[in-house]
Amino acid sequence: MKMKTTEIGRLGETAVCRQLEQQGYSIVRRNFCVRGGEIDIIAENGEYLAFVEVKTRKPNSLTSGFDDVTAKKQARLIQTAAVWCAEHPTELQPRFDIACVVMQGKQILSVDYLENAFDTTGSDFIF
C-alpha cells in the first residue's frame, strides 16, 4: 500500500524532531498554521528559535528539497514566523532552517540540515 504524501511528510518531520532533540533543542510546536502559511517545526535551544521547513524526498529525486524552498516560499515562512512571534514574544534569536529528509518506504536514509538557510533580508518583517 502506498503511503500518502502527508504521512511521508510527517515521518520526515518526526525524524528531524528527533535529531533536533538529540542536539539539545526543545520542540515548541509542530505544524503551526495560519492563513497563507505553515511552519513544520518550531524548536528552541535557549539561544535560537528555529523555524524549520522540512522537505521529504525519495532517493534520486530530481530536485533537492533545498531548491524547493523558493523565494516565494521563504516569504510565506517569514510571514508565518512573524505571526508566531507576535503571539509568543521571545528573547530568542529567530532563525530559518531547512531540513531535507531522504526516505525509502518508511526508512529514513538521511537527514541534511541547513541552519540559517535564509534570512529576512528584503522582507518587511523585523524580528
TrEMBL record:
SUPFAM superfamilies: Restriction endonuclease-like. NCBIfam families: PRK12497.1-3, YraN family protein. It comes from the Bacteria. This is UPF0102 protein RUMCAL_02864. One of its GO terms (molecular function) is nucleic acid binding. Belongs to the UPF0102 family. Pfam families: UPF0102.
